[in-house]
Amino acid sequence: MPEVEVFRTNVPDHRSAAALRRCLQACFPTWRITFDLSDCDRVLRVENPTGPPDSPAVAALLHARGYACTPLPD
């Protein structure tokens, strides 16, 4: 069953979000990955069709590129 994780980020614009999405998609090709930069939390949503997303790996990837990324509580 697909599971979704939602993160608060500080991604500033759509260009940065697109580059991060491509990078995440390369690491996790079966996941559905979207950004909602109009939300006050500049939300990143990841959906893994086979189980829980690897939240630490997602956060580490964004942190390595200089962005904040914190899972939002359910």
Topology overview:
Layout lengths: L2 E7 L4 H14 L4 E5 L6 E6 L6 H10 L4 E3 L3
Antiparallel strand pairs: 1-3, 1-4, 2-3
Give structural notes.
This protein is α+β, with helices and mostly antiparallel strands. It has one domain (3-71): Alpha-Beta Plaits (2-Layer Sandwich), CATH 3.30.70.100. The chain has 2 helices and 4 strands; from the N terminus they run βαββαβ. The chain has a 4-stranded antiparallel sheet, with helices on one face. β2 (32-36) and β3 form a beta hairpin.
How many distinct beta strands?
4
Number of domains: 1
Continuous helix count: 2
Q: Which structural class do the helices and strands define?
A: alpha+beta
- Overall mean pLDDT: 96
User: At the third CATH level, what is the topology name?
Assistant: Alpha-Beta Plaits
Quickly list its features.
single chain; 2 helices; 74 residues; 28% strand; 4-stranded antiparallel β-sheet; 4 strands; alpha+beta; Alpha-Beta Plaits
What would a concise description of this structure say?
By secondary structure, this protein is an alpha+beta fold. 32% of the residues lie in helices and 28% in strands. The protein contains 2 helices and 4 strands, in the order E-H-E-E-H-E.
